[in-house]
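Students often ask why we bother encoding 3D structure as a string. The short answer is that it lets us treat folding as translation between two languages. Here is a chain of 675 residues written in the first language.
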Amino acid sequence: MRRSRWARWLVALLAATLSLGCTQATPTPVPAFVSATPAAAAPLASSPTPPRSPTPAPTPTPQEPWIVGCVPLYHLPGQGIEPRAMAATEGRLYVANAQSANLSVIEGGQVVATIAAGAEPIALAADRAGRVYVLDGRESQLLVIEGAAVVRRWTIPPGSGSLAVVGETPWIGTGDGRLLALSPEGGSELGAISLSQNAPVLRIVPDLADARWAAAVTYGRIHRVDLNLGVETAVAEVGIWRALAYSHDGTHLYAGVYRAEADEHHLLKLTASDLALLDEVRLSSAPRAVLVDSTGDRVHVALPEEHAVLTLNAAGLEPLWRANVGREPVGLLCMDGVLYVACAGSDQVARLDPATGERSAPIPLAARIAALSTGPEGMLAALGAADQVTVLRDSEVQARWPAGPDPQRLAWLPELEQVAVLSPSAGTLTLHDRHGTVVAAHPVRAGADALYHDITNRRLYAGDLVLDLATGITATVVVTTALGAAEAPALVAVDSARDITYLVAGNGVLGSNSGLMAYRLEDDGTTTAGGPGRLSLVDVCYDEELDLFYSLYQHMGAYGLQVWDPATGSERLHLPLERRPIGLALNPITHHLWLALGEALPLDASSGGALRAYDTGTMDLVTEMALSGPVTALSVDTREGRVYAGCDTDQGVWVIQDLPMPEPSAPTARPATTA
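And here it is in the second language, the structure alphabet:
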């Protein structure tokens, strides 16, 4: 199963609770497996209620797949999905998770509690008294946290999107270009400062050296504000969006900006008093956050497009080091000599040495199961947020081994007796023996996430890399889009009957969000548009026995499953889907095509998600199962006749017994329809 390049793999799914962190699904499973993972650290006062044991169920119908149980992989007190903002107080690190609408509380390098935080926590700030303020942008309220509990909720103006604390006074930035000071006791408005631009205030940065000053960001402008007098004293039009930081002595500001005329990104060093430009350096991509660390000598810049943090000398803006972290780093914070990085796309907080960039083990906020693959010892699961691969055998966790930063793809290579692990954020393909020891490593284009094992030709496609498994020779493969750009493939599929390889990449057309489409890989290494699937492909796979391709797409609000005939190059069947498609997995033994589906149309997170199976001979529905959370990975074990589905919310892998079925008949010809 694969993720689309832009879509999130979040599914709100239904059901009651299974023991040991996995939740009951339909049909009702037999008792869950026993966990082999350690318990979480002792939580703060507001720890979650332990899950309930399942209700015994009757034996499932013999001719239908059924859920056997769920193998818990990771124990955390709650789920932190899409971390974006951080604050620290009294030795605790608070992380705001935008998509799961909660806060992760971290002590001693691990999550100890999770706090519900409105509908969309987008900003955090802590005061000297140990209180933490949370701005809920969707419900227009400010939450006050003490310890692990919400103690107060204050209504704030709609459109407020930024927050800071100066001394013990919280300040919020409104949607109409104002800074509002609130009473820390009752949340009443103490005063307001109107900026010269009537636009949303995106960021407020206080001068920690002197509580009198603050800098505010609106679209394309930096405003210097005297908090005591309540007036704006300077404005600079510099193409900024959010990335802004004060030096520790309050004399300089560092700003990440975009120069539209040159299509370039820069880091600027400005005088704090009048916002005059002192120095600048070009950046390789858009900065999302800037931070001056506790020494005052280093400036850290988060580059989410490159999944990296860049650190420069504060005096002259010379680069000092660069470190790969998890996907989409968007938040930076220094505490106790550690640089913490909130990685929104990896559901983790990375930890770096601010002096050298050396990376410590990250702090996982959720049990993100990024990929599953059948291995010689059982099922392999990549835990992206934990930088680990977990081995499942006999329905238990047998082993864990480190797999580099944020592993996202897995493949067992029987010809080498090795496991291939792809880390798009680090730009590496590593080959491990069955015990997890790294035996080889290859660089790949950063951000490229395709991993496909071409068994017929003994090749491994990893991002823009092709590895010949017989000779060890590597080559580069890219897709040339309509406008001539070279892209690494996001998906790979091989027509083994005709020895044709199809690469899936963006269409390259401006204004179309680069919807994924198929390209044929020619013998000379060039690519030609055309192949299985419609525009905006989500996943694709080939059925060797029936000589058919199956593909999922989502395009302009329409979802569907397509059956494509490579012999004629025509669409054999099209089935519109009423749920958001997530991924595919084919069981060639039972002739079942498994679909992971998300929210129902119109998109409604409360509608849950599902696993669905079709008979590939008739394309009739075999079964549909509701699960309790996001399905992030799907894999088939033909030896055991099982299907495995990774579920973030349940922090485990669901196991479905997929019974052998009769040999398929020829697919029924049906007229193709349009979405």
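Translate back mentally: Residues 1-21, 24-62 have pLDDT under 50 and may be disordered. Keep this in mind for the problem set.
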